[in-house]
Amino acid sequence: MDKPAVNLLSVFIAVYEHRSITLAAEALEMTQPGVSNALKRLKEQLGGIELFVRDGRGITPTHSAIQLANDISPALIQINNALSNLNQFSPDTSRQFKVLTTETTLQLLQPLVEASNSMGRCSIQFVLSPNTETEVLDQLRLQQADLAIDVAMFGNPSYSAELLLEEDAVLICSKNHPRIKDAVTQAQFYQEKHITIRARRSDITLADFLTHDLLGPRKVSAECDSLLSMMALISRSDCIGFTSSIIAKQYAEMFNLRTLTPPFSVRKIQHKMIWHNRNQNSPANQWLRNKLSQLVNEA
């Protein structure tokens, strides 16, 4: 049996990841017949082993294909990393990066990037992250996004992460609140009505996600999926809410809100940059990560 060429294995991995010859062809900038011919040649070199079978309108990898993909993916990543080291990147070359982000880091980073005079001819498109971890990692794996910034702990060995920044979680209420002034007690916390934020990818509130303590039942007046929506509602009511200190610093004055220290133990909110290992040594991806870290540190 001849040893398959690296380019045939790369085509195989693209089809395996996309589960589609059409999408793989687009990603590889090849024609569909070219991808199909590459798979046919690979099948012949593997002694006629079937790698994909038709499944409705799509294709499904066979057990042999799954085993092959698991065996060769780490080696192909190393090869791509080595080739990336040979590529030169300059911010003077026009390029747009796509970064998946949380609401907090979107509010922080987008103005910093727009105001920066050190972006060269590069730009960054920030997009709110999908609701599931699988969708985030798939976009990175399929090169539909260059980077993700998230507070989740993604325990997947195919991805790397680096801390971008950390912040405190704070309580907020209207400056005109009739009962709460410069501090809030645990008794007041449970007595007041709350506007909550549902933590993404979990069935708990942001407060429960970030606290070390087990919080008791609260009087929930409303539930939001946006920190700014929550702040707007709190500004027009006697409710209290839990938010990020970055968002509070930027918008508390605008919404006439008071920032308070929570009356219980709260962990730091850690925002991490996450990327696929194939981009570990990519000069362009390294520049992107370093640029975002630089902007945050200088802010």
From TrEMBL:
Cited Pfam families: HTH_1, LysR_substrate
Start and end residues of each HTH lysR-type domain: 1-62
Please name the GO terms that the record assigns under molecular function.
Answer: DNA binding; DNA-binding transcription factor activity
Per the record's keyword annotation, is DNA-binding included, yes or no?
yes
Keywords, sorted A to Z: DNA-binding, Transcription, Transcription regulation
Q: Which InterPro entries match?
A: LysR-type_TF, LysR_HTH_N, LysR_subst-bd, WH-like_DNA-bd_sf, WH_DNA-bd_sf
Family assignment from sequence similarity: Belongs to the LysR transcriptional regulatory family.
Q: What is this protein called?
A: Transcriptional regulator, LysR family
